[in-house]
Amino acid sequence: MSDAKEFIDREQQFRSWVEQYRTELIRICILYLSDYPLAEDAVQETFMKAWKNIDKFEGRNGCTPKTWLISIAINTCKSYRRTRWFRLTRMPEIRGQLPDYFADMKPEDRDILIDISNLPEKYKSVILLYYYQMMTQSEIADVLGISRSLVNYRLEKALHMLRITLGEEEHI
Amino acid sequence: MKTNDIRRIIDTGLANVTTTPQDVDAVMNHILSGSARKKAPVRKARVVIAALAAVMITLLLSVIAQALGIPVWDVFVIGTDNNVKINVDRDDRFTTEAQNHISGFSSDEIAAWGEETCNIFDEIGIYPDLPSYVPEGFVLTDPITYVDGFGYICVDLLYENADGKTFTFVSDIYQAGRYSYSLSVEFDYREYRSFNLQGVDYVIGSNLSINSAAWFDKKGCYTISGDLSIDELEKMVRSIERDFDSVIMPDDLKSGANE
Predict the structure, then answer these.
(1) Which residues on B lie below 8 Å from A131 (Cβ)?
(2) Virtual CA dihedral for A83, B183, B169, B228, nearest 10 degrees?
(3) What is the pLDDT of residues B195-225, one digit of tens each?
(4) Fewer beta carbons under 10 A from the terminal one: N or C of chain B?
(5) Exposure of B158 by Cβ count < 10 A (0-12 exposed, 13-18 middle, 19+ buried)?
(6) Of A24-28, A68-72, A86-90, A108-112, which range is least confident?
(7) pTM over 0.90
(8) Closest-CA residue of chain B to A169
């Protein structure tokens, strides 16, 4: 196969990933960053990193494009959150708030999302990946680069924290 | 409510987040234009605007203040009297000694910050000198620890009270070995306080409308900022009981290059 043909094939494959996963990636990033424009930037950066490192992905066995892209997106959001600008200005601002995009939600739905977004980062990650992305614990372990048992532990602890904030009657 | 509903709630709440063919084209064009090293447009614009505004405000205020005879640069930068760069041999004794104790923190520090916070530092094996006073009602809600690109161990603690007021306590802790650190604190000069306590310089002021206190010692560099008054911040930093080993002495200060 010629280089040009290979490039075109790869571009088409990558385009299909953008079509398929961009929306979900933006939703995840919004929940991490509470900011739509910043989430769009994070997703753009995610795709750039993925494109530049696509050779590494092709060498990884058992990893789906989706889990790979999500792991890049999460790490990108984490690096955004760790900037001094975010830590000193955005973090206090967004505490206990959700972006305007959630404005039309039912109050009880809104409460649960605020409680999730207020979870410490490591617990929020497992909750979102398990219950929103419907990943298995093994896939989450791959994405986060931690052991499966630690995923299980964090999931249990996160649910325990949510039970406390939502009340035992919520049946989580 | 069940957690299985989480997917439905997020998808419903963010239903207006979609991807159009134009969005896909924009992503692909950006990638294929060879601009992979460029920052994404919105973020880049924000950075440029913020940088320009910061430079212009700083210059303007500096000129005015200097014209009025206010010694701006003495309080603009903390660290030493004359030099923002320090290059000091780190004294590791505090870590070793602290690890041999039941806790590296005093009972006052534990009472003020809570056991969870002290446990976070315990896990890392580092014991900064913490304020013994924290305004009543604030509880730890979101601790984050990581090692940044410069090798500093960073501990970010977000505290919140029942009224929804928050503050962050950010510690950048030096790792073993020699270190060099400079800290620039850009205040808007409307209100600031600068003072030295037990050998450590503190700056407290309003930074982009958020009140902040900043200082550093031999163990690390610290910032407290958020919904706290200037008086509360001063009360917090004045409550720090100094471990003598953490104070940077004049002999420690050198103006040489970083190692």
Answers:
(1) 3-4, 6-7
(2) -110
(3) 888 878 888 887 656 788 888 777 778 888 8
(4) C
(5) buried
(6) A86-90
(7) no
(8) B1
